[in-house]
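## retry 2 of 3
previous attempt timed out at serialization; input unchanged, resubmitting
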Amino acid sequence: MKQEPKTKNVNNYLKFSAMGIQMALTIAIFAGIGYWLDQKYQTKQPYWTAALSLFGVFGGIYSVIRQLPKD
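## retry succeeded, writing output
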């Protein structure tokens, strides 16, 4: 009987850890694409990196909010 709450806590921990990793990877991938575009087009300021990093942040937040429990 005591195994159920412990298992539930572990599952929640893994779920929320995965959300954080997913958000970090989303931001990193978009920032990497932006950096690549800045290098390809040789921009003076890192406009692509900044824009796509922000897009990654908003996309990551949106993804996390959608995965949160409705409780």
